[in-house]
Structures are given as structure tokens and as C-alpha cells.
Amino acid sequence: MFAANTNLISLYTRCKHMVKFDRVYITNKGLTKFFSPLESEIMYALWECDALTSQQVTEITAIPQASTSGILDRLVRNGYVLKKSYHSVNNGAKYNYSAAFTYDVIAEDIMFRILDSLYETFGELAEKSILKYKTKPYVSGNDSNVCD
């Protein structure tokens, strides 16, 4: 029994390190969140609008301006957000922020990162499990549209 528990702990440790499961959450909308909750809010705002200033992001998300600026800088640095400068007559240089990629592109990238990590760790077993999962019948969840 001790050997089995040791193997489970070892497996959990490898999995947790492998894809940082403590940072991946699945919502009922099917979104795999790779971003922090505040980063997610900002990304959603940027996906909804073509380009926003940090002030507009603050107004839309209700995230404090100091936090918004830091999070936007981090998202720009990581390549998820584009920063374009424009000049305001009264206030000097200002910036517009926009999503560098669509929601679908980022979601696919996250899924591929997770799948790559599973393949690297579990090899052929991961492939067999994924193929087995593909044959799993779809289980309907809450299919209501929030726009209805």
C-alpha cells in the first residue's frame, strides 16, 4: 500500500510540475484559463474592443489603474497584447492596447502546450488516452446562451 501511495504522490508531483495544474481552471464555458483572474478580465475586455487605453481598461474592468498598467505591461512583455502609441494634444504620449491574438488562437496555444507536456511526460500512454477520450460521448452541460 505504501508503494502505491508513493507512486501516486510521485505522479501528482510530476503532473503538477508538468503543466502547473494549480494555474489551469476549466469553466463551464470551456475556457482553459492560463492567465490570472485579472489578466483574464483584461484580455476579455481587449477581445471585446478593438483597442483600449489603460484608462478605458480600468473603466471597463473596474481594476485599479495602478494594477491595470502593470498587468498590461506584463501582457505586452509576454506577447499577448500589442501596445501602440499615439499622441494626445494635451497629455503627451498615450497608448492603445489590443489583443495580439484572437481568443481562439490563444486557447489553441494553451491546449497545445498542455498536450505537449502530457506527451513529454507520459509518451505513448498520453496518445492512447487522448484517442480514447475522442470516442467519449459528448455530455451536454449548460447550453443556454447568455445573449438569449
- CATH C-level label of the domain at 36-134: Mainly Alpha
Radius of gyration using CA atoms only: 20 Å
* Helix/strand class: alpha+beta
- Helicity, as a percent range: 55-70%
Q: Proportion of β residues?
A: 5-15%
Shape: elongated
Number of helices: 6
Kindly report the name of the CATH homologous superfamily of the domain at 36-134. Winged helix-like DNA-binding domain superfamily/Winged helix DNA-binding domain
Strand arrangement in the largest pleated sheet: 1-2
Q: Report the CATH topology name of the domain at 36-134.
A: Arc Repressor Mutant, subunit A
Order of helices and strands: HEEHHHEEHH
Termini gap = 53 Å
Q: Count every beta strand, where a strand is a DSSP E run of 2 or more residues.
A: 4
Could you explain the architecture of this structure?
This protein has a two-stranded antiparallel sheet. It has a two-stranded antiparallel ribbon with strand order 3-4. The protein has a domain at 36-134: Arc Repressor Mutant, subunit A (Orthogonal Bundle), CATH 1.10.10.10. By secondary structure, it is an alpha+beta fold. A hairpin with a 3-residue loop joins strand 3 and strand 4 (92-99). 55% of the residues lie in helices and 14% in strands.
